[in-house]
Amino acid sequence: MGQKHEYQCPQCSYEAFVSGGMDFGFETVLVTISCRDCAELFDAVADERSAEICSTGDDGEHGAPTGIACPKNAKHTFDLWEGPGKCPKCGTKMIVGRPGSCWD
Ligand SMILES: [Zn+2]
Ligand SMILES: [Zn+2]
């Protein structure tokens, strides 16, 4: 499984603990999203089938994974987020903090 990272905003000190992109597990696909309504980063779980769609890229069209939504509200608008990307609160480029797992 993938590793999560801590991302920090140097401007407003917002912190998020996310995978920072698309993360393929055995049966699930984790996608990091930046929710515009919550102004937060989340790891959302995409449909299993979208993993196949993404890997094969059938007609060259690289569609976004399906089935993902903001965990707070499915109607929220969000953008796919790849770390280190922009802070969902103030738009400043975030920096990578310490790695999440296996840290003592
Ligand atoms: Zn910020
Ligand atoms: Zn949201």
Given the C-alpha coordinates, what overall shape results? globular
| Helix and strand pattern | EEEEEHEE
Number of strands: 7
Q: Radius of gyration, Cα only, in angstroms?
A: 14 Å
Chain oligomer state:
single chain
Major sheet characteristics: 4 strands, antiparallel
Helix percent band: under 10%
Ligands bound here?
A: zinc ion
Please count the helical segments: 1
- Flag low-confidence runs: none
Q: How many domains?
A: 1
Mean pLDDT comes to 82
Percentage of residues in strands: 25-35%
Beginning-to-end CA distance, first to last residue: 19 Å
Structural class by sheet pairing and helices: mainly beta
Characterize the structure shown:
It is a single chain. The protein has 1 helix and 7 strands, in the order βββββαββ. The chain has 104 residues and is mainly beta. It has one domain. A hairpin with a 4-residue loop joins β3 and β4. It starts with a strand and ends in a 5-residue tail after the last strand. The mean pLDDT is 82. The site of one zinc ion has 7 residues, from loops.
Layout of secondary structure:
Blueprint: E1 5-8, E2 15-18, E3 22-24, E4 29-35, E5 40-46, H1 48-56, E6 78-80, E7 95-99
